[in-house]
Hints:
The protein is α/β, with parallel strands linked by helices. Among the domains are: 9-192, 3-Layer(aba) Sandwich (Rossmann fold); 474-616, GMP Synthetase, Chain A, domain 3. It has 20 helices and 27 strands. The chain has a five-stranded parallel β-sheet. A five-stranded mixed β-sheet has the order 12-13-14-15-16. Strands 23-24-25-27-26 form a five-stranded mixed β-sheet, with helices on both faces. Helix 15 links the parallel strand 13 and strand 14. Helix 3 packs across helix 4 and helix 8 crosses helix 9. It is globular, with a radius of gyration of 26 Å. Mean pLDDT is 88; it is low at 1-29.
Amino acid sequence: MKLLLRLEDDQKDKSSYIIESSLLCITALNMKPVNTLPQLLENRALQSPHAIAFWVRNNDKEWSSINWQAFYIKVKVLSSGLNNEGFGVGDVIAIMANTSVEWELFNQAVLAIGGVVVGLDPNELPEQLESVVITSKVKAIAVDTLDRLNKFNKQTRRSFSKVITFQTNELETEFLHAINLDELIKHNQINNDLPDIRPDDIATIVFTSGSTGIPKGIVYRHKQIVLAVNTILQTYPELSERCNLACWLPLSNLFQRMVNLSAISCGAQTYVVNHPKQIMEYLPQINPHVFFAVPRFYEKLNQALEAKLNNRSFILQYLLRFSLLTAEKNSMAGFLCEQLNYFFFQSFRSLFGCNIRYMISGSAPMPVWLLRRFQAMGLLILEAYGQSENVVPISANRRDQYRFGSVGQVLPGNEIRLAEDDELLIKGDGVFSGYLESNNKTNLDNDGYLATGDFAEIDNDGFIHLTGRKSEVFKTSTGRKIAPVFIESKIQQVKQVEHAVVFGQNKKFLIALISVNSFDIENHQNLTEYGLQFLRFLRIYIKDLPHYQKPAGIVLLRKEFSVADQELTSNLKLRRKNIQQHYATIITSLYSELENPLSKIHMQPINLDNMTLLLKL
Length: 617
């Protein structure tokens, strides 16, 4: 179901005409200073009412647009409808749906009545969703399909005072208190007597990804999010009303919502893609000027490039790979190859259209080798760094000031310093005040600094280099401190690798759990043959690691980790504890075989089944 967002003349009610007239008459000089998120949207509608706000795919599979004025009017009508249904300031309303323009529309309407938005990941486990709803005291929920509610038990479903559905079909009898979004808009008019929203009012409750346990709630106020938007636009001045952006990541995560809010503030056009798997199909049509993604996206894109290279003749393969590697070097030959690559990899760059200025990567570390490879093809990826507990991005590389291997320089609104053990500490107005229902309401030290949980180094130019996640760093039984992400990034240079997870806490040596591309294995007679060839490649990429950082053995999995199996978060970060639990028996088997001098693993791989292979490195 898609909302018809264009307002035809014969469909406009009286309130719409009044709003339109005022929007056309009021100038930018009369715009309110922005202290809240509703003011952000109102100012945009006043400043550029007829500029395009969103592009959506219609039923004819064509892009149709909605301008800022029409979108703002829809928000005003919907917010009035929500207010008439009894919702107001401080009421917590959850949204559980795929990315869509309806998600953003409903989000803005809840904010406009002073409500608090909680984004729910549809792929999350039922027990975690129940925890989020109970902790945040959700009063009502909006869903794209009523099937989403099956994730909750009956008691929780009945606790929702209202269920708002984006569907147009008939509502199920169990949900007599359900309202259709279209109907809510159709049967309401703009109410200009909505309560005033204050900068200190709560705008959203964000829940941590839950990669280490049950998600914890973080409260953010309007003024904090507005501050974050201003910082983003100051950091990336290329974001403007002449800019195309893509909305394709889950809106349950604040990352994509912050991109959308930045688009509202600067007036950029946003193309809404409902399913992440469709992004590569639509990117050339979207023609983004700046593109936001998580590292996993770029890794998958590189795997697709590798697959294409493998289909070339040996001579052409060698030439293209040589040109890529040489272009990474700071030399005259590197410069020449960079120019050649502009033509060699023109079709690859065209996947992003013809407007792309740079890409931004966030939410997880990006391998340096991959940053260099993309740059060698004329595609610049800039890493940014932030935390759920600080709504203002902490640091970022910029188009004119970046350093690969770093997460950039600290951004305005943040103060940083290193603790005695080199953990990065952060202070600023964007830092949260404590988790919901937590005994420790501040989570700050005596000087007001938040411990980020990341070890870091700061170079002479102020670039921050993250050296490991404190919760992930472990010691072997020999006393060596291991930061697994660095080792995993080395392993992921092998083109067949989908994911790599290193283990070894309190063990004499490390092992790695590696998932590989199943399609790639199909070209081999059996998994054992494939594994032996894989080992040859892997040894090349980890040869420079110190001996204590080299895994002694690997588990090769003919299976990818997934969000559905709770092995990845919604923004595709590893859930290490879950993965370790899922494969505990296999990990134990590998250690037993490696520690047994009589095991055949010292002579040949051990094939547990057609999906799992144990190998000694």
